[in-house]
């Protein structure tokens, strides 16, 4: 059975839990103690030498990084609806995974880390970047329901948690109605699961 090593309050871990649930993939969740840095122990550093979560173990296969795990799950257990294989559609989906790893991380995610976990980050810069990325999202979603291809894909799953959790970083979504509507659509997907803060 698939094993997912995770931390409950991590948006990156939630992406994977959400994807597993949307796909209906049976798995075992192993919660690690973030406060005692259990994920940095030698046991888990063998699975991910960067000492980060989530980690997915599927038989002999070990996948680290939430976005790499989303790709793996979509290709192994999903179908082309979640991750298409033609070049143009793949690039459209993948660009949002890179957006999540860069703009969303440096904006809403960093602001949340600062306010919720007291991680010493430049919160003013994170707040500015959050406003920038939320504006792009709101404009992009003004004429569509999903980020790409007129259906939910791993692009939506990758971007969802830290956008939806923006209020944890003292970033209001009130002026981004299209983003709010998109968040609600994701919450209505069959198999959706929440997390603390959502």
Automatic annotation (TrEMBL):
InterPro entries: Glutathione-S-Trfase_C-like, Glutathione-S-Trfase_C_sf, Glutathione_S-Trfase, Glutathione_S-Trfase_N, GST_C, Thioredoxin-like_sf. Gene3D superfamilies: 1.20.1050.10, Glutaredoxin. Residues 86-198 form the GST C-terminal domain. Residues 1-81 form the GST N-terminal domain. Pfam families: GST_C (PF00043), GST_N (PF02798). Signal peptide: none annotated. Belongs to the GST superfamily. This is Glutathione S-transferase. It comes from Nostoc parmelioides FACHB-3921.
């Amino acid at each position: 059975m698939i094993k997912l090593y995770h931390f409950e309050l991590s948006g990156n871990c939630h992406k994977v839990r959400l994807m597993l649930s949307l796909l209906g993939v049976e798995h075992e969740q192993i919660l690690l103690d973030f406060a005692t840095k259990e994920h940095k122990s030698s046991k888990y550093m063998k699975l991910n030498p960067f000492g980060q979560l989530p980690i997915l173990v599927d038989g002999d296969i070990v996948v680290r990084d939430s976005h790499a795990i989303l790709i793996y799950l979509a290709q192994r257990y999903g179908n082309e609806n979640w991750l298409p294989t033609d070049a143009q559609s793949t690039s459209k989906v993948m660009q949002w995974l890179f957006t999540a790893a860069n703009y969303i991380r440096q904006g809403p995610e960093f602001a949340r880390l600062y306010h919720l976990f007291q991680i010493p980050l430049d919160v003013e810069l994170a707040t500015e970047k959050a406003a920038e990325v939320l504006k792009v999202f709101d404009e992009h979603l003004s004429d569509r329901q999903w980020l790409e291809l007129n259906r939910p894909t791993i692009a939506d799953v990758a971007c969802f948690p830290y956008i939806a959790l923006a209020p944890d970083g003292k970033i209001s979504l009130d002026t981004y109605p299209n983003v709010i509507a998109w968040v609600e659509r994701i919450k209505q997907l069959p198999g959706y699961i929440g997390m603390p803060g959502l």
